[in-house]
Amino acid sequence: MIDIRAAGPMEQFEILPIIALDFAGVDISFTNSSLWMVIATSAIVLFFFLATRRAALIPGRVQSAVEVLYEFVSDLVRDTIGADGRKFFPYVFTLFIFILAANLFGLVPSIPGTPAEIHTFTPTSHLIVTLALAMVTISIVLIYGFWKNGLKFFKLFAPSGLPIYMYALIVPIEIISFLSRPISLAVRLFANMFAGHIILKLFAGFVVSLLSAGGAVMLFGIAPFLGAVAVTALEFLVAALQAYVFAVLTCIYLSDAAHAADH
Amino acid sequence: MRVEHEPEVPKPSGAGWGRAMRVSSDLLAGLFVGTLLGYLLDRWLETEPWFLLAGIGLGFAAGLRNIARSMKDDSGSSSEI
């Protein structure tokens, strides 16, 4: 029988502690969010281990997949940052693959009958997670920018070749624009995953409600069902696209930091 | 005889959705940061509401700057305008 107690669309975002931990008054419990981050990370490690275990000159299927991913991010880093961007490849690749895995694991259906603590959870659907990732990016930009350019890093906020009086307006705008980058980066990924999962859950909820109504009304359930299928397909696309966008923007910001003095 | 026209409207795609999300989050983030900075400066210097008003204007400008930058990035040229 179908369980008609269709859960609300927000329930999937609830943080549930699995192992309660406390560190000097700060709640550092191992939660379902942590669990799915660990699952995503383990899957990445396993995937790369399997792919590179027997590295062959003529790659097998798994090895090809990993090589395509590597080439993809490698080209992205080279094209965006330039020749001196090589040292950022590990960071950008880690970021890309982690967000991609976290997004995709969020699309795996939960196993029915299991406790809510281990139901599928998308860590990237929480603003705090995406904001933390964006903050790491912007910290690297700041540290590397000042290390590479010294005080010339501030040239990023004052493009040369303007009339003097324009700087009074341009400098605050550029500073606000710079400060809004991590927020824009974080909100974009979070909003995409959050909105997508709500839509998915709503469609699925309609199917359950209509089916439980019984009789001819059940036939109407086909419409939201098809909607849910379409949204699932779209979500796979969005999951990959948002991981890509995050990586691209990280590269652009790093590129700005690397070339701030040239402006 | 009716002439079949290819519709000029671009097909809805994942890339279009991505771009829409990017533009909206760019604008909102600029506005948010500008307003927040203005508000905090006002609270600090007790000059309500001048920095807040300036912050909203500058934040909006910064949001548009963000959009101009990301559109420029999309068209494949350098990130610097």
List keywords for this structure.
heterodimer; A: two-stranded antiparallel sheet
Can you lay out the helices and strands and say which pair or pack?
The complex is a heterodimer of chains A (263) and B (81).
Chain A (H helix, E strand, L loop, with lengths): L16 E3 L2 E2 L2 E2 L2 E2 H22 L7 H21 L7 H17 L21 H23 L17 H47 L8 H37 L5
Antiparallel strand pairs in A: 1-4, 2-3
Chain B lengths: L13 H32 L4 H25 L7
Query: Outline of chain A, from the CA principal axes?
Result: globular
Please tell me the total number of domains of chain A.
Answer: 1
Characterize the main sheet of chain B: none
Extract low-pLDDT stretches of chain A.
1-6
Distance between the termini of chain A: 66 Å
Distance between the termini of chain B: 49 Å
Write the H/E string of chain B, N to C. Answer: HH
Tell me what you see in this structure.
The complex is a heterodimer of chains A (263) and B (81). Chain A is mostly helical. Chain A has one domain. Chain A is 63% helix and 3% strand. Chain A is built from 6 helices and 4 strands; from the N terminus they run ββββαααααα. In chain A, the strands form 2 sheets. A two-stranded antiparallel sheet of chain A has the order 1-4. A two-stranded antiparallel sheet of chain A has the order 2-3. With 81 residues, chain B is mostly helical. Chain B has a domain at 23-74. Helices cover 70% and strands 0% of the residues of chain B. Chain B is built from 2 helices and no strands. Chain B has helices at 14-45, 50-74. In chain B, helix 1 (14-45) runs antiparallel to helix 2 (50-74). The termini of chain B are far apart.
